[in-house]
Amino acid sequence: MSVVTASDRTLPARWAGLPSSGTWAIYGVLLLVLAVSWTLILATGGNINLTNTLVRSVALGIVAVGQTFVILGGSLDLSVAYQVSVTAITASVVMDGRPDRVWLGVLAVLGVGVAIGLANGLIITVLHVNAFIATLGMSLILRGGLNAGFDNFAGAVPREFEWFGYGDAGPVPYSVLVLIALVVAGWFVLRFTRFGHHLYAVGESEDTARLSGVRSARVIIGAHVLCSLTAVLTGLFIVSRLRAGAPWVGPDGNYDLESIAAVVLGGTALAGGRGGVLGTFAGVVILALLDNAFNQLEVNAFLKDVVRGVIIIAAVALYAFRQRDPIR
Amino acid sequence: MSARTAPPPSRERFGTAPTGSPGRRIGRALLGTAPIFVILAALLVWITIENPNFTDPPLFLLFLRRAAPLMVLAAGQLFVILAGEFDLSVGALITLVVIVAARLIDGEPERTWPVIALLLLFGLVVGLVNGLITTRLHVPSFITTLGMLLILDGATSYWTGGSPRGELPENFRQWGRLGIEDVPVLGQLPYAVFAVLIFGSIAVLILHFTAYGKQVYATGGNPRAAFLSGVNVSAVRTAAFVLSATSAVIAGILLGGFTGVSPDAGQGREFQAISAVVLGGAVLGGGRGAVVPAMAGALTLEAIFTLLNILGLESPLQYVVQGVIIIVAVAFAAFRQRTAR
Q1: Considering just the CA atoms, what is the radius of gyration of chain A in Å?
Q2: Domain boundaries, chain B
């Protein structure tokens, strides 16, 4: 509608998806974490490997872009971890190690992703089920279905498909390029398309958006379909690296809660309407850098979780401090 | 009632609103969330048809004993949900309670009570921290308690090096698996059932018979209106987190007795508790719900698991059923809410 595009230029930066002051802040934090972990690693005689760090962020990063979309729209998706598993298993079973069936596998998982995203979106908008419960329920359903059918690796992906997980264009792995392309595409959609602007409007206040003529249900359903498609992409990346899918690849990566953590660490408000994918990207890289530093310094793996928890809370507290309402 | 005192804006939004005698209020609360009792009754009848022994008092009490930890947990989580927040850290807290108790007590019965006191104190601190970070630092409780989940899980694993050590003596485990023996008709009267009754009664008293209870509803219904009416919204929410953490410690003690020491004693319990509360008619976002239906929601979840076991359904499919049921229950509640207007 013209309402949104006409007022485009006057929109505050945070609504227009421009890097807001919050995004600059998170990139400041990113640089700080990079500097500190690099120094620490150099001081102990190790060497930081940026490419490795980035590859480590790909799986979480891709799905976190999708999670950003649903959170911006005031929703959230707790079912992405099992969607990743469903995708990995489906792809590897359909492809069955045969190069001529790669397209069939990809087509199948895209179909599955669209179906799950549609189901989530419709349950939330048509049945008016809270997104937390809707996607928690979906995650239980997917989990049950998966565990009933599979308990370990099933099928295989052909060698040709491993380019996604292991291939590289010169020094940069394809998977990192895919992640960066996805972040740029996400930024573009949020910044320049009607859907993106509507998503911010719905996230800020669904009632206001609806009364202003935004078909809020369609926007939320669209965001969920996009989110599920990113979960599919993550699933394809993982299956390409593992060469076969297993039911535990998603929950083991903890992609549901981790992706939400990465999104809020990147400055997107959990209540919706504020933030963007550029911040999320920084959030994901920060988490990966911490991982990397902890591994190289051989710090106890369990302490990592403690530090993560503290950092996530502290970051969100800082954002809240910067934009405090008098009464929440 | 119009001009004399400023009524809370839109009383309907509070659901089980703070007016009328306590009895009528509870009655209304039960009426508003009645479907869960119908579902629970239907499930119990179905289980009895499949397994006629189920209604034997001893067997039924065993069922209640198994459901006890989740019922306590649901009553605690309810306060947080009513106040408009989430507590995702209870599962991690349960695991911590079981593991820490085993390591600290290490089979020495005389250490049981001091350690239980210590754990309750620790629960209090966890609840306080959750509440203060959420209310004072304005971090959404989803993130606060998610962070707390990571911290508690990480700390527990770090302390034990990944594999739990130590053991729980009989005077600790009795609360989860023993009871008063040789009661006429009933056989064994499990301590866990007492724990449910006592914690449930305290929760009912606090929520439905004190000013604090009314403030919880007001805070969840409309925090700004509650604040402007003089409610200390932050304190109300913080206290709700303390109640939830306390319920987790109690549930942990019961589970430690029932299932023994295990590094995943509390895994997934936070989502089960939220599911139970929502099955009991509470609305995420706050302001609607009651203690007895929330506990009935927990009992319903356990009844579903029991029924599926009896029917011989593979355990993975239990997740599917649980997922479908919470979605359907919430969709149904949302439908009733829309048509009631």
Answers
A1: 20
A2: 68-267
